[in-house]
Design a protein that fits this description.
The structure holds 2 protein chains of 2 kinds.
Chain A: H1 2-8, H2 11-23, H3 29-57, H4 66-83, H5 85-93, H6 95-98, H7 102-114, H8 120-127, H9 132-157
Chain B: H1 2-20, E1 42-43, H2 50-62, E2 67-74, E3 78-85, H3 93-107, E4 112-116, H4 119-132, H5 139-154
Parallel strand pairs in B: 1-2, 3-4
Antiparallel strand pairs in B: 2-3
Helix pairs in contact in B: 4-5
Classes of the chains: A mainly alpha, B alpha/beta.
Chain lengths: ~160, ~160
């Protein structure tokens, strides 16, 4: 792949690419991965702790505690985004803060803050689900497809 | 910096109070989520020979290699078996439940079992177990609570 790209370039372009490489700062991929792993793990640990709180103090089972736990984590991340704390965490941890469900809350509120100057309806209302909308749509649609496949499979096999 | 340290220590103290101050005495249920408690199996309407039945149920359940903590309470009609599954075996939760139900049904065909690996059900079983240690806690109340726990187990949402 790299060779074919190289072949398509003119000698001048190749020379420039070589020159550019000298000044390019290397991405600390391993360091970023470790940071993302630990911060993402920490967020999940907090989520697990909240889940235990719901099981211990409220009327939720292990199965049903997942819903209020996600809602709580999303709400906390929304608050932290509003206070400007989650942005710093995002800069530090990268994917570690975006992949857990807390990243969903962050994507909603950051879009709302960004477009606040354009007004409440066209700005906030029109753009609040700019990032999270596709996630919701994809989630709902894939759940529908999986449920459809499962239903067809159960109908064909008679529930095994 | 001092304010930050102070608020952090207040949060830690509040958390410790929250964990330790909510129930009195040396209850088993308080730590049931975090460590192995291994309670004695109980029968609400205990008659002679009944304890051997619940002990047998517990022994059978504990014989499954992936299970490590078992609580058994037998009511008037239903028998509740709550257990914890070893961490690395939690991927096979459904098959363990299936295997256990099959085993218990074949060994005790006259009993009606409710088996659960849910932490909440284990916790509530332990809370009932703690209450049953009090001689003033009536059998009727215990059976009613047992039915409520079984109902909670059957709730899906």
């Amino acid at each position: 792949m790299a060779d074919s790209k190289k072949k398509n370039k003119t000698p001048k372009q190749q020379q420039y690419a070589k020159f550019e490489q000298q000044f390019e700062t290397k991405r600390p991929v391993l360091k970023n991965c470790i940071k993302a792993f630990f911060v993402g793990g920490l967020i999940c640990m907090i989520g697990q702790f909240i889940s235990y709180l719901y099981i211990y103090f409220f009327h939720f089972t292990e199965q049903t505690s997942g819903n209020p736990t996600s809602a709580t984590v999303i709400f906390i991340s929304m608050l932290l985004t509003g206070f400007g704390i989650y942005d710093r965490l995002g800069q530090f941890a990268g994917a570690g803060s975006a992949v857990p469900v807390s990243g969903f809350g962050n994507s909603i509120i950051s879009a709302a803050i960004e477009h606040r100057t354009e007004g409440f309806v066209l700005g906030v209302g029109g753009n609040i689900f700019k990032l999270a909308g596709s996630v919701i749509l994809f989630g709902v649609f894939s759940a529908f497809v999986v449920a459809l496949i499962k239903t067809i499979f159960l109908m064909m096999t008679g529930g095994l | 910096m001092n304010i930050k340290k102070g608020s952090l220590s207040i949060i830690i103290i509040c958390f410790c109070i929250l964990l330790t101050g909510c129930s009195k005495g040396s209850d088993h249920s308080r730590w049931a989520l975090f460590k192995k408690v291994d309670p004695q199996p109980l029968s609400i309407y205990a008659e002679d020979g009944d304890s051997s039945l619940v002990e047998g149920i517990k022994k059978d359940t504990a014989s499954v290699s992936a299970i490590y903590d078992v609580a058994v309470i037998k009511g008037k009609k239903d028998t509740l078996v709550a257990y914890k599954v070893k961490h690395m075996s939690r991927f096979k939760m459904k098959s363990i439940e299936k295997e256990l139900t099959k085993k218990l049904k074949s060994d005790y065909p006259d009993e009606k079992f409710t088996v659960s690996s849910d932490f909440k059900i284990f916790l509530e079983t332990m809370r009932l177990w703690d209450k049953m240690q009090d001689p003033n806690y009536s059998d009727k109340k215990a059976n009613k609570r047992l039915k409520a726990i079984i109902k909670l187990n059957n709730e899906l949402t």
